[in-house]
Amino acid sequence: MRATIAILSAFLAVSTLAATPARAVDAPYEERLLRLAEVLGSLHYLRNLCGETGNLWREQMEALLASENPTIDKRARFVARFNRGYRSFAETHVTCTESTMAAIERYMKEGEALSRDTAAMFGN
After folding, report:
1. Under 8 Å between Cβ of 119 and 44
2. Which residue, among 77, 78, 85, 82, has the nearest Cα to 103 in the 3D structure?
3. Upper half-sphere CA count for residue 92 (Cβ side, 13 Å)
4. Could you say which residues form the signal peptide (predicted)?
5. 52: how many CB neighbours lie within 10 A of its CB?
6. DSSP 28
7. Radius of gyration of the chain (CA)
8. CA distance 73 to 95
């Protein structure tokens, strides 16, 4: 549970990046946020597979989109990355196993690091 709280706190820090106005050029942190979207999609699938109920990770994705307020094309890229993360595990994990739990742990750590480091490097 502490890891969940930590990743959510770090995620909220990344949300402050939305204060910058939309530009035609990709923001320097956009690839990091796209990867975060993919991690959120993976966690949405894996955590629910292992017994978590609800849409916490999808809601975090919606919060990311709301904070970034991307153009239609960029929004499609974020959604595609979330879906790619979800589908990549849906194809290979059909039951919750030790391998699934290890993947969850890795993705929780990666998501937390992406959020924390992106906020530290690019936050206001």
Report:
1. no
2. 85
3. 9
4. 1-18
5. 15
6. T
7. 14
8. 34
**Rounded CA gap, 12 and 7, in Å?**
9
Assess contact for 68 and 33: CB atoms under 8 A: yes
Cβ-count burial of 50 within 10 angstroms (0-12 exposed, 13-18 middle, 19+ buried)?
A: middle
Continuous segment of H or E residues that includes residue 55? none
| Two tokens, residue 3 | 């890891």
103 half-sphere exposure, CB direction, 13 A CA radius: 24
CA atoms within 13 A on the CB side of 94: 1
Instruction: Determine if residue 54 is left, alpha or beta; phi over 0 gives left, psi from -120 to 50 gives alpha, anything else beta.
Output: left
- Per-residue tokens: 98: 């030790």
Report pTM: 0.80
The residue type of 104 is I
- What confidence tens digit (pLDDT) does each residue in 26-83 have? 778 999 999 999 999 999 999 999 999 989 999 999 999 999 999 999 999 999 999 9
